Amino acid sequence: MVPSGSKITLTHDLIIFSIDYRYLKTFHHSRNQNGEHLTSSTTQLTLNVMETHVGPSGFVELTCISTIPAYLDDEEERFADKRIQTISGEKNFGRQCVFCDEGPKLIDDLKPDKAYMEKYIFKNPVEKGTQYAKIMSENQINTIRKDFADHGMNHLEGGWPKELDTNDEEAVLRFRKKIERLDNYILAMKHLTAPMEHAILQNNAVNIYEQYFVNTVSAISSEKASCRIQNVFRDPQEVKRPITHCSWSPIENEFALTHCNMNFQRLLPDQTFKSYIWDVENSNTPLLHFEAKMPIVSLEFNPKDAHSLAGGMYSGQVAGFDSRKGPEPVVLSCKESSHRDPAHSVLWISTKSGMEFFSTSSDGTVKWWDCRKLDNPVDFIILDTSKGEKPSFTRAMAASCLEYEPNIPARYMVGSENGYIIAGNRKGTNQQEKLPWMMKAHYGPIYTIHRNQAFNKNVLTVGDWSARIFSEDCKESAILWTKYHNTRLTAGEWSQTRASVFFLTREDGVLDLWDILQEQKHAYLSFKLSDQPLTCLRVRDDGELVVVGNAVGTAFVVRYSTNLAETSKNDKNFLGAMFDRESRREKLLETRNKEIRFRMREIALAKEMKEDKSEPVKTDFEIAVQNLKEKLETDLLNAFNDVKQEEQKLETGGDVEEAEEDEEDEDEIDEN
Asked: In which domain of life is the source organism classified (predicted)?
């Protein structure tokens, strides 16, 4: 035991484990940093012993005050007064430790320091995020595009030596016999015939072209509606021109694009007027280009001949092209008999020859042409709807688009630049029969008119900021319409395979797909294609591919998922019921408007009679108005009853008819 208050000196054969409240340090005074023993001198540390205690394992525990080493800083000085020192010799290293329970022992009680409290500053809460992962950056750059061209060679005859004339049959026969007698020829034939024979037998075993599931009904697809850009086609010219029209070829993988700047006096003197035919799978080089002396505004494939095309020019002329005869027009109309303004739309019509088409322009005329002879139009009409007057160019409406359905060969529709739809009938004998009716559709030019393939009475129109669906039975207003968008709509078209789907393009570069059976307030699927305005679109016959052009000469071929192109079993029935319901609603509103107008006329007539202070004598006109009013009320009541019965039939099926039959039976029983 060491007396309390005495001093001890630790030499090189002892190790001191110094433990305090903030850190643990081990002082080894008998070895240097390399582990070598110190022989020249020994490190000494003087301790003031306060308490001594012998532990259960033979260790000497001292509570002492040590001399503060020079390397301790100011913070450590506060905690260096009292420490527990455990001293042991090297002989006790490795001995088993025996631990025992012992109560808590208060070593020190640190009071708060007021000086430090005065210096403490409360920091405002700060939100700070940290990320352990490394910061990465992604950059994209378009490499310089290279133009590629495809070249092929038709190799009909095998390779022969130079000295052999292939036209000499005897020389060829002698050469063949010479080769067939060689040993290498026989060995080569043995090696080649074995795999060939195996392939022939395998090919004959299974008919790879057999259709096993021809008449089966396809199940409802659970595929998520989606779309993707399949290919991008850019204008090969340095000066980029807007795409004004696109058309699919009867050969499904080809389509035509026309490039023309329609802004007034924007045609450059050295600018080319090329339009192109592209292959869907090859975006590097166009298959063919067409070039005329003026820009081509519209270009349409002949549905009966994939090599024939009809085009409308910026000068108002129309031309016929043949892909087999080069880029120049085969036939071209003369300026005297052509349109006065650019020919915006050209469509082929259904005839026996398959060589006729018609065109329209902003000069207010529609002209029919035979591409075998374009000297003069076959027929023409001025879009003047004034009644009782001779048609005049001064009153003609500027046309912006055409619509034609081959199933109705004599009828067509024209969209005007002031928002009117004009119906036309080529079989009419006078101006009123040729243009039977017109209706106000939009506040600006109509860019597209397209009939539904399944329901020919319903027409899609695109103009101003909305798209509308009209029915030929309701000539006062649309039966369905989209909301007003923030940007203008530029084109639209029905899907060829799914009757409830149509596509719209917008000036903000977005392509919208609408399915009116799924959603009527918003687009069912929207896809951002470009930062530039989209100008035109055309849907392929299979409904999966859509080609879209923009204002800088870039065309996008967009592929939609199969479930957006295929129609289900009840889609046509549901869509037909929707069109019928909306048409009846519009008819009822039309009847109500007529009734209101008649009442307004009656009130105005009564006011006139009161102002004249004449005797209230009923005139023939008043009697006729009264009779018409009663008839309209009766018709309106019957129409409401019919609509109510139709709705009950749709909701309850045949329950309504059965209930009516039961009521009739009860009436008969009561009468008996």
From this structure: Eukaryota
Does 220 map to a domain? no
CA distance 639 to 645: 10
User: What spatial distance separates the first Cα and last Cα of the chain, rounded to whole Å?
Assistant: 134
Evaluate whether residue 132 is within a structural domain.
no
**pLDDT higher than 80, residue 229:** yes
User: Which residue in the block uniquely carries the two structure tokens 């591919």?
Assistant: 545
Report helix, strand and coil shares of the chain as percent, to nearest 5.
Answer: 25, 30, 50
Backbone angles phi, psi at 244, to 5 degrees: -100, -20
Residue 408, in any domain of the structure: yes
Q: Which of 39-43, 245-249, 631-635 has the lowest mean pLDDT?
A: 39-43
User: Are 286 and 409 members of one domain?
Assistant: yes
* CA 564 vs CA 217, 501, 669: distances in Å: 17, 8, 56
In contact, 537 and 513? CB cutoff 8 Å: no
Instruction: Decide which of 515 and 15 is more confident.
Output: 515
d(CA 586, CA 540): 33
pLDDT tens by residue, 258-306: 999 887 666 666 678 899 999 998 888 898 999 888 899 999 999 988 8
Count structural domains, the chain.
3
In this structure, are 540 and 596 located in the same domain? no
| Distances 526 to 227, 513, 514, 558 between C-alpha atoms, Å | 9, 6, 9, 12
Q: Which two tokens stand for residue 583?
A: 């048409």
Q: CATH number, domain at 407?
A: 2.130.10.10
535 and 633 in a single domain? The answer is no
Taking alpha carbons only, the member of 425, 504, 516 closest to residue 464 is 504
Q: Are residues 557 and 629 in the same domain?
A: no
Distances, alpha carbon 176 to alpha carbons 2, 165, 172, in Å: 121, 13, 6
Radius of gyration of the chain (CA): 47
pLDDT tens for each residue of 116-148: 888 888 888 888 888 778 888 888 887 777 777
Cα-flanking dihedrals φ and ψ of residue 143, to 5°? -75, 165
Whether residues 420 and 320 fall in one domain: yes
Name the residue range of residue 548's domain.
240-573
Residue type, 438: M
Is the residue at 387 inside a domain? yes
On whether the CB atoms of residues 524 and 225 are closer than 8 A, the answer is yes
Q: Which residue, 100, 116, 151, sits at the end of a domain?
A: 100
Using the CB atoms, write b or e for 323-336: b if 16+ within 10 Å.
beeeeebbbbbeee
Contacts by residues 616-623 (CB-CB < 8 Å, ≥ 24 positions apart): none
Q: Which two tokens stand for residue 572?
A: 């046509």
Q: Which is it for strands 288-291 and 274-279: parallel, antiparallel or unpaired?
A: antiparallel
Looking at residue 393, what is its pLDDT?
87
Whether 370 and 349 share a structural domain: yes
Calpha distance 54→41 (Å, rounded): 30
Q: Please give the structure tokens belonging to residue 375.
A: 């000297």
Q: Which of 298, 289, 279 is nearest to 557 (CA)?
A: 279
Domain shared by 382 and 499, yes or no: yes
Contact 345, 377 (CB under 8 A): no
What element of type H or E holds 573? helix 571-612
